Amino acid sequence: MFSNTYRKKLIIIFTIIAIIPILLFAASTYTKINTYIVEENIKAKNFHLESEAEKLDIWFTVNAEKISDLSANYPLIKELMIQTDGKKRVNEYLSSLLKSSKEIINIRIVTENSEEYSSKPILSSGDPRLKHDYINALLKKELVWTLQGGEYDTPGYITASIPFFDKEEKIEGALLVDFSFEGIFKRITEIETEGNSIKYVLNRQGKVLNVSGDELIDIDKAGKHYEKNISSLAWEIAYTDSGTKNITLDQDYLAIFSTVPSTSWKIVSLIPKSNIYSGMNVLIKDVIYVSAISFVFIILLSMMISKVFTEPLEKLKEGAIEIQNGNYDYKFNIKKDDEFGQVALSFNDMASKLKKSYEDLNSNNEMLLEINEQLQDMNVELEASYNQLMATTEQLNESEQKFRTLIGNMYDLVWIMDSDYNVVFANEQIESVLKTNKENFVGSNLETILSYVTENKEELYNEIISSDLRNKEISFANRQGHRSIVEANTKRVIENDRLVAIHGVIRDITSRKEMEENLKRKNEELVVINRVSRGLTTTMNIETLAQRAADGITRLMDVPVCTIRLLDEDRLKLKAYSGDASDLITLEDIPIDEDDIGKVAKTGRLHIFEVGREYKKSRYTERIIDSNKINYLNTLPIKARGKISGVMVVGSQRSLEKGEFHILASISNQIALIAENIALYEGLKQNYIKTIKTLAAAIEAKDEYTEGHSYRVSKYSLEISKYMGMPKKFCEEIEVAGILHDIGKLGIKDGVLTKPGRLTEKEYEMIRRHPLIGSKILEVVGFSDVIMNGIKFHHKRYDLKGYPEEIYIDELPLEAAIIGVADAFDAMTTNRAYKNAITPKEAIEELIQNKNTQFHPYIVDIMSDLYKSNKSIIDTIIESDAM
């Protein structure tokens, strides 16, 4: 087999050339794949854990957004609170929200006056404002997550707290949503990392919150053997957001950890290193197996290749001898596409050409005779085709005329562009659509036409040549600056995979777009007017009303300044101002006779002053006029039912449109009507207070010793509430409750009330019923819960003893606690039929001695601080004998 020396050499050379790269490749492949697989495996696990931590953080973020959206409903919830059965309604509303989520276990609302609402029955006791979740919301003034022990039938829960703010950005309370740990840890347990791996969840202090998998170590209770390695791991986790770290315990582990940003929790996964490197033994066997097979394959391949080279050489040698001897019919039987095959074909072709030369000469002569006959037949056919062509031409001319008539009568611009992107046709609508003449358009190329386009020229060029446009809106501007918006449609004509032409239709939609923009602008104006109107109708404060209107006008019309002044006799008093130039206006009252804007307050008609022409600056307006920030003073009267109550001034750089004046007139009329309603409300409020005081006077007329008692209790309660920083509404209601707290005594006999000696058990029982009698008298009036609770429970003690005994409550209402302290203080500091008065200082000491049992400790502390810091107020109230 190997007698041929040339073939042996080929086999040896091919084997050596092939085996060396295989050995080098095997060694290099093992080293690189080993490193790559391990590194990529670690990167993949690290990335996977970070991704899962990010998903968990997204869960916190999404729920935080839902809770923020829920807190935005506080105005609605606040309206429910002030209703007669407000607490029940709010609790029902929170219960309905709880049903929408399986992960939420409770939703609560805690107000500043310690009122608590809940979607579930309240299991906790004490003041909810002293709990960590409520305090954290007050301190952070934003949404905060608080980890807590279990108060429910669960292992524990986490609370999301977000504060409520009033219009002056003061905190009125907080929304608290409790989530179960069970749902959160289920998400962590579902994180896939590696077989036999263990996942730990740690809080920011390093405490283990959850473990999933077979627990190999206890990070909180590790033995001394592992203490150093675990301390190093804990240090790395505490000060690094994510990463990996090697740790040796009972075996070598790879610790992969990541942080959940919302809670600063750490998710730690311990993976045995043996799992990561387990696949490398298989890789070594595979490399050896592949190398051995490759070696055997190379030897066999070398033998086959050497045979392929030697066999064609022998055949070529034999054929060359035959051709040399004159045998031109000899054919090489080598069917290959390589160099050997090409040489054999060349030899075969050469012999065939020599043999066929004579035969080709005879066949050419016969062919010339046949061609002559064919030319004669073609001449006859050409004459017939010419006649048909003339008839077809006449038909095409007639069709072209009809086509041109149709295209010419269209309202849209029709154009045709050739394969070189040059316009070869356009109908007569070119001037009406693009405002340019036909001569300039026809013959222009695509780039010239797109020079009229005002934006995205390159993008539009690529769209036209690569696709068909469908209702594409394009903005054009001709050489004279005329702008128009068109709608374009194109169709590419392609034959044999080659672009032949582009047909296009352009329609002018400028008027349509202007109408759409006008409708959009009007809609935006209506939205802003509606928003301003809602803001105006939700306040009973004239300054807040005016400020909301001024802010809305400057934002809607983009003007430098807007001021609202109300008439106070013959002067215009500033109530609100807004805008970038508002720092230049005067805060002084403007006499209506000393400035031109006062004319509007007299005439009650709109007036537009053009600065520098109609309007002459006064000392009140010289700063803003000299700033050159406004060119017009648009002055409107604020009037309702024919009565002028003020003036609205809008300073602008441009002349306002007619529609904008309609908006200003609408807003000024609303201001006037609402201001009038506010004045009527204040009058009703004063009459209401007088009626309340009359009722209190009727009570005290029965007993000369208690004359002025209700007035003093009301004032003490009011001062305590103010010192606590309670809302204005609460202060007003606690004042009313103090005046009426003893109204139930109207239902008790005069002899019992004024009896100088000791009361019998029956008489004392009659006295104990006056809180319930008072609540019965007033329940049909519709007073708020604050007033009714103050009247009903002012004799209820802090430890819930006292009376009325037949009504059970979980906690003493804040308003009742306040009136109870005020009532006791006045009783001790005034003379009664059964005892003499003591000094205020002694009374304070008596309150302190009985706090935490009879009196609310916090209210007693407030009363003590109030007396120390404002002793003159307390003395003034004590000395007052009448309302």
UniProtKB/TrEMBL annotation:
Stretches assigned to the HAMP domain: 307-359
SMART domains recorded: GAF (SM00065), HAMP (SM00304), HDc (SM00471)
Domain HD-GYP: 684-879
TM region positions: 12-30, 287-309
Record domain PAS: where: 399-472
UniProt GO cellular component terms: membrane
UniProt keyword annotation of Repeat present: no
Keyword vocabulary terms for this entry: Coiled coil, Membrane, Transmembrane, Transmembrane helix
Biological processes annotated in GO: signal transduction
NCBIfam families (UniProt xref): sensory_box
Protein name: PAS domain S-box-containing protein
Organism for this UniProt entry: Proteiniborus ethanoligenes
